[in-house]
């Protein structure tokens, strides 16, 4: 049974930082990717960043480039999303998701069949 557990969300002031973690268990196979998605109230779900455990490619949506960094710890089966210089528009529930693929991509959330429960990030003064 595949499980993804996010942690690390919270309330932070604009300009602050948070690090989200996604612990993955039960996933079979070597060719998979982890994606971070977010959904703000009244908005559609948005792909934020992803990383491939197969070929190692990394993607970011334009609005977070230069501020967010995705990384992985293979030994711990954990993916991190370091979020710096947070802005109010980053406020959302953040989800990590897993799917079988060589190259990670962010355009099709349907390619990620396994999802965590989400963690709330609030950026406010």
Please give a structural write-up.
The chain is mostly beta strands and 125 residues long. The protein is built from no helices and 11 strands. Strands 2, 4, 5, 6, 9, 10 and 11 form a 7-stranded mixed β-sheet that branches. A hairpin with a 6-residue loop joins strand 4 and strand 5. It is globular and about 45 Å long. The N and C termini lie far apart (40 Å). 32% of the residues are buried. The mean pLDDT is 94.
Give me the secondary-structure topology.
Blueprint lengths: L2 E5 L2 E3 L5 E8 L6 E8 L6 E7 L5 E3 L7 E6 L4 E6 L8 E9 L13 E2 L3 E5 L2
Parallel strand pairs: 2-11
Antiparallel strand pairs: 1-3, 3-8, 4-5, 4-9, 5-6, 7-8, 9-10, 9-11
Could you give a short description of this structure?
With 125 residues, this protein is an all-beta fold. Helix content is 0%, strand content 50%.
Radius of gyration, in angstroms, nearest whole number: 13 Å
Structural class: mainly beta
Mean pLDDT: 94
**Helix fraction?**
under 10%
Determine the N-to-C terminus distance. Answer: 40 Å
- What can be said about the biggest beta sheet? 7 strands, mixed
Which tags fit this structure?
seven-stranded mixed beta sheet, 125 residues, four-stranded antiparallel beta sheet, single chain, 11 strands, mainly beta
């Amino acid at each position: 049974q595949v499980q993804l557990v996010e942690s690390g969300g919270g309330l932070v002031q604009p300009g602050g930082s948070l690090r989200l973690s996604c612990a993955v268990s039960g996933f079979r196979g070597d060719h998979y990717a982890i994606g971070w998605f977010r959904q703000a109230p009244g908005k559609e779900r948005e792909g934020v960043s992803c990383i491939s455990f197969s070929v190692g490619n990394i993607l970011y949506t334009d609005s977070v480039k230069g501020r967010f960094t995705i990384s992985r710890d293979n030994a711990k089966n954990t993916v991190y999303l370091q979020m710096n210089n947070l802005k109010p528009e980053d406020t959302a529930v953040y989800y990590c998701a897993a799917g079988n693929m060589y190259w990670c991509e962010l355009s099709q959330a349907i390619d990620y069949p396994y999802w965590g429960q989400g963690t709330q990030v609030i950026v406010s003064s």
